[in-house]
Please model this.
Amino acid sequence: MTRPLFGSREVYDALADALNEDPKWLAKAQVLNYTMTHVYTEPLNKTFTFRFEGGKLLDVREVDGPAPADFVLTASPEVWERMLVSQTITPQIALVTRKIHVDGSMTTLLKHITVFNYLLAVLTGLEPVMSPDER
Model:
């Protein structure tokens, strides 16, 4: 398996494939009908947006500029790397310490926190690499 490149659309395409083929995820996430955007700030300056419909992750796109969504998660590339690659910070700690900023209904996010935690576990399980040479 080729490991996806951190901070690229490859990560989100691989995530969509993994989730959409995972019966456990589809059973847990069938209530999800939301759009989500992940923003990587300077120096990467990338934004990825996607949509959940009945738990399926659809319409993965890299977009220029702000992307309206039900949930927008914004963090520096360093924080994203610490959550997704080196796993030296948990998403919950990043939220509490305001290293990651969330725009959207925190009540809804917290209501579905076990589902989002599962998503993050799958995402980190993809073992994204920091450079193409690490594949």
